[in-house]
Design goal:
homodimer; 24 helices; 3-stranded mixed beta sheet; mainly alpha; 3 domains; CBS-domain; Tetracycline Repressor, domain 2
């Protein structure tokens, strides 16, 4: 990120170009791994492995975990089996699994072949959790304690075993069958007397999730309860892993992006924009464009049905864009608000009547305002300047009639649009679909058709065609 | 949140209704504060203070911090000065400031009057930071160490002073002038030998932000570097506060919601949907609806200009909705992608040429696909069924001509829409405006006009009107 580039890319490149490798490696070691990974990514492709091999084993693994999958794959193919294995064993299980999920099958095979049997078994277990489940994002590197330990013993245990754990700031208490019994933050261990017993100071009301839960639910729980980590249990409430707050941040960011993409009629992508190919971007965008284009057939049918009237009152068509856009915008406002509310858990399915009642009143207020503004605009501006030619051409007898038609239509278009915008996302969620799809583009297509039907109905009533 | 309701609301309500207050208070004490706050919020208005007063002082403060501003204000007005003061002194400074910013002026006055002079001075300092700046979200309750301490002394210092700190898991090293010199995670203190010197084990390459930095930048840094807290310094690099990861989560969630609202032509709200009044919701939605409605005047002008042609070729109007919607959708897809990329820091201003070149190719692919699909659809379906009457009415001589006009128009509409969708958000950011406003509704209005101009230009060329 622009604002976050705390490191001097030019200085590193200079050291690299002048082959001052030991100074370069020293500088890289001082950088946060995520920044070091950014530097490796800008190096010429065949030079990145050269630098990477000079890094210390543990910082190499940390930097490796932050690289883009493409570069990870390239690096793996240029390293020896031994080197790959060293990096792999240093990674946290969740990072290793993420990485393997992105890599080509032959590279995965080579990595798993070289891993220790324990690592291999664990990786395979993690790979079997459904995508986007808590199981697939959790890590098994957590601190567990037993009830009978004293605080001093617990701290000693953390000092001995904590170095490889993803967090040491929360410890979990399990019984002999590994069933989760309590939670103890390190803060509490530190503030208790050394001889106090864990069973007495632990909090037995643990907030936890199941391996099958959705990763978004888990991230929302971490955010809701301000946790550093959330324990994940299997069906028998045995502790199998934890999800840490930094992973929750990534999940929430990715889920927000996914919702935004769906709301804009794009199939979700998981790569950054500039790293996605043209053909791939096209594939994510064309399905909805096609679907929405085809469904516009319905609006054509409505217009075709009134061809004679249009021939006689051509001025009616001049307000098509304004009426349809206003309806679409009004519906989009509501649907997007409801979709976001559902996703943040601020709106529940049971709130449907409250939502409809509120939207109805908001819609009537918006409808009245826009109708009044339309009246002023159409009557004062449009008729007296731009549309004069049309009026003088004799097709129209009464400005006021057209003006009335437009105002009535825009009012009802807004009311219908807002009700559709409120009901479709809630209905989708009720039926188990993703509400995010029910946003502007989809709503627009429906609202266009309804608006035109209202328009022609009102017009035929007033103009008697 | 539905999924997160781990507590039994009915059980608590039952205890409350049957006046089993001591059992109720015991249950509430076991709950996470955020859940206890939810329970208080559903109690009848005049009963909430009754329950609240029975709570222990420290849990009362923690629960108070999680309440909605409305209920906080009501509670404060029903408590004595002494009670208000007790709660207030227990709060973290950032929570206290958030709370005061939401409360009516007379309540704020009453609270500040009762606060200790130190608290009052600190609050006033925090209230002076610009809204949405790092200074306004940071807290001053952090752990600071000096270089010359040993690890054992540092841990002892944390045990003595840490109880009121927002996090004890990262400590910051400052010199006599309070200038930030280094950072030591508690993990490292724990894993080092008791007699090691802080100056030797601290990391001097601290990642930090300034009080004036935007809160979104700060939250992005915390997410990017997987931090538990980020230190905030003043202009002289003196440490004045920290922002913790749980606050970063809230900031990122709020900023994503704000972007989504702006993209849907809504002025940003900061209250949950169901807690916002009808009139307030109307006020957030009507400005953009009005603006977009008025700017549609331009499209009316274009259509009015071609009134004679429309009279003769009424079938042309049947494709208005399809052409304009497709253009709007195509432009919306691009603009939303670019806006999100800019906000996540995946796209930078310097990438403008890469973005345009990529969108141009994607647009041409999408344009060709949609044009081909349109050809098939219009030629096979529309002409042979729905539009037959119009065609037979004699206004048209050649189906193929109309079909060609539509295909050419939809191709160019998509190309223009995607270029506009790419350039406007980047341009807005370049000029210092918020790119999020340049999303679908705004793009649609522009693309509508351009599409109609292309449509009539192509049609008049082919049909010679």
């Amino acid at each position: 990120m622009e604002e976050n580039e705390k490191f001097d890319l030019e200085e590193l490149t200079e050291l690299f170009d002048t082959k001052q490798y030991s100074a370069l490696i020293r500088k890289i070691d001082e950088l946060p791994p995520v920044d070091a990974a950014e530097f490796l990514a800008v190096l010429p492709e065949h030079r990145a492995p050269v630098v990477f091999r000079m890094l210390k084993k543990d910082s190499a693994a940390a930097i490796f975990a932050e690289l883009e999958p493409d570069l990870q794959t390239k690096l793996v193919s240029s390293l020896t089996d031994r080197e790959v294995n060293d990096i792999f064993e240093e990674l946290y299980v969740d990072d290793a699994v993420d990485m393997l999920e992105e890599m080509p099958a032959n590279v995965v095979k080579r990595i798993l072949k070289n891993a220790t049997p324990e690592t291999r078994a664990e990786i395979n277990r993690f790979l079997s959790y459904p995508e986007d489940s808590a199981g697939s994002v959790m890590t098994s590197e957590f601190i567990d304690l037993t009830k009978n330990l004293t605080c001093a013993e617990a701290i000693e245990h953390i000092r001995k075993t904590g170095i490889d754990k993803e967090t040491v700031y929360v410890a979990y208490v399990t019984n002999a069958s590994r069933v989760l019994e309590g939670v103890v933050p390190l803060k509490q261990l530190l503030f208790s007397e050394p001889d106090q017993i864990i069973g007495d100071i632990m909090n037995p009301n643990v907030i936890y999730a199941h391996t099958q839960d959705d990763q978004e639910t888990v991230a929302n729980m971490i955010s809701h309860y301000d946790l550093i980590a959330l324990p994940i249990v299997d069906k028998e409430t045995r502790l199998v892993g934890i999800v840490t707050v930094d992973d929750a941040l990534d999940v929430l960011e990715a889920e927000a992006t996914e919702d935004i993409e769906k709301m804009a009629a794009i199939l979700p992508t998981d790569k950054p924009y500039l790293k996605t190919g043209v053909f791939e971007t096209w594939k994510k965008r064309i399905p909805w464009l096609l679907l929405l284009m085809v469904s516009a057939t319905f609006t054509s049918t409505i217009i075709t049905h009134y061809e004679t009237a249009i021939g006689a009152y051509a001025i009616l068509t001049a307000f098509f864009p304004m009426l349809m856009d206003t309806g679409g915008n009004a519906g989009g406002q509501t649907s997007v608000t409801i979709i976001r509310g559902l996703s943040l858990g601020e709106i529940h399915l049971r709130d449907v009547l409250r939502v409809v009642w509120k939207e109805l009143r908001v819609a009537m207020l918006c409808g009245l305002t826009i109708a009044a503004a339309t009246f002023l605009k159409v009557f004062s501006v449009d008729f007296h300047f731009k549309a004069r030619s049309m009026l003088e051409s004799g097709a129209m007898q009464n400005n006021l009639q057209i003006c009335l038609i437009i105002c009535i239509t825009v009012f009802f278009a807004i009311v219908v649009a807002k009700l559709v915008g409120a009901l479709l996302p809630i209905g989708a969620k009720r039926l188990g679909f993703d509400p995010a799809v029910m946003a502007s583009p989809f709503i627009t297509t429906i609202v266009d058709a309804v608006t035109l039907m209202i328009y022609f109905a009102v017009a035929s009533h007033i103009l008697h065609f």
